[in-house]
Amino acid sequence: MFPSQKGTSGINYIWQMKKILIAPLNWGLGHAARCIPIINAMIRHDFEPILASDGDALTLLRKEFPKLKYYELPNYRIKYTTRKNQKLKLLINSPQILKASIKEHKVVQKIHKKENLSGIISDNRFGIRSSKIPSVYITHQIHVLSGKTTSLTSKLHQRIISKFDECWVPDNDKSILSGKLSSVNTEGLNIKFIGAISRFKKQALPQKYDLLIVLSGPEPQRTLLEQKLIGELKTSTKNTLLVRGVFSMTTLPKINKKITIINYMLTDQLQQAFNESNMVLSRSGYSTILDVAKLEKKAFFIPTPGQYEQEYLAQYLSDSKIAPFSTQEKFKIKMLDKIMDYNGFESKRKQTLNADLFKLF
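RE: above sequence
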């Protein structure tokens, strides 16, 4: 809210910033993390962001933006399995996802009635939209990989996208980072490529760590990878920082004197850690790929088992000679030596978070 100003008629009036609801999916921290630069851009361009999510995604945004208003949304309550039948698990949970999206759609109408919103930005939350105000959907998966059912899941997702006024894709129009996930026929969909957005900035800092490990993603697979890596790190001589990606009071015991373990870091801390590290080990989640690309880091990826998108991205980046990868089951710490045979990322991708991006509102 800005101070009272006098209009041309001589009458005092109050100019109020437009309120935009921004709601990332709570599926790991990636969706919330890539919304951070968008929230910062909204603030720069005199909008008032209102946060909406659940679980760790909402926790992250509240810690990053403690002064912003927020609302808690219904939880999709989807977990990954410990086996390779994740697609079946998701199909079984489809009614649950649909029920949650219907519920969150009703919640949004109540928020709009209370806040008088000027717009909505949803990162992969199907029900976060309104026919009464401009609504934007963020995704890099216009083409949804799901094995033999890829055609069906892609059509269903595109149908959801079509209900929004715009779809923002965090990549350039040549789909350099997302590959075939976004380079598909999008006729009838109002697609905007907004660049390879990241909350981080590249800095020239002295190298403190040989290896930065950033864990993320839904349980139980996050914990399974953590346990795998702890076993591999016991004999490692690399100066390593392991960021667990959990908002927990519980800490892990010391592995060895070369390993530093921390539960989570906010943007400024994690940005410094990235810039102080020689190489990065992480999931091949798209938001992490955006960050590593922006910082031009050498990386090694371990896709989440059963997640077709991450498996494709890891293979795509390997085939492009950008970064190597391994399955979670077969990973060994000595595989990190492969990084030197790859070219790494080059940050030639501009992000377009200027005022024109928000002209819909």
